[in-house]
Fold:
Amino acid sequence: PPSPAPAAGPSVLPLRDGTGLELWANVGTVRESLAAAAAGAHGIGLARTEILFLDRPDAPAEAEQAERIAALLAPFRGRPVVVRALDAGADKPIPFLALDPEDNPALGVRGLRALLRRPAFFRTHLRAILRAGGAHDLRIMLPMVTVAEEMRAARGILADACREAGTPIPPLGAMIEVPAAALRIEDLVAETDFFSIGTNDLTQYVMAAERGRQDFAAFADAAHPAVIDLCAHVVRHANGRSVSVCGEAAGDPRAARLLVAAGIRRLSMAATRLGAIRAAFAA
Ligand code: PEP
Ligand code: MG
Structure:
């Protein structure tokens, strides 16, 4: 039988220090988006777009991309939504991008690196996101950012896409998943409107432990002090830019407590985790 829909609840939890903890949702399908809205998420903190592209021999046309992304966002009409540009490569292979085979794809051409190698596709994809986000408080986020030059290049392509789509330039965010980006977060501030830490990948790279490998669970632990300290560093050096966490750690009470202690006040998680996090931070 289908699991019961998560119960609704507050989207901001009051903390003892007088601040609030915002609860956002990660969604990759319309079903997840409906569940997240029903569960009372503040907004979409991570809309994963990969599902549109998996198992496709060719890139879907702009209109189809726009239509499917709009369907993903529809339950959050008028709400803040963060759409992540296609995160191709490594654990998310996308055949039509025709990237070269690699011995070590997790350290290869993935995320923003892949998008910048396919600028025509990237621009079309951004136009589709811009069109899909018209009824929302749209923000766009880029995966696997390493250095400021990549953000600058992406900004240029976004500006072109906005001109072509006839839309204003939305806030542009960077996922922080690469240790170099986290350690030098101040270098990204000038080019980046907000940050979201992807603890799934950041943990993989900090701990040198492949994500998804069950026998590495003890290493690949986002609650390890090395990962938490790096998250605290990001918060301290982000120069007032908002910093959220959208990895699975955000929905795990043990890791979430450590992230909040590290200064994080915005967590984005699967709708099914909202109840556990509300319970963990109940006053
Ligand atoms: C992450 O890496 O933590 C993340 C949220 O992105 P994904 O799991 O889609 O790589
Ligand atoms: Mg990631």
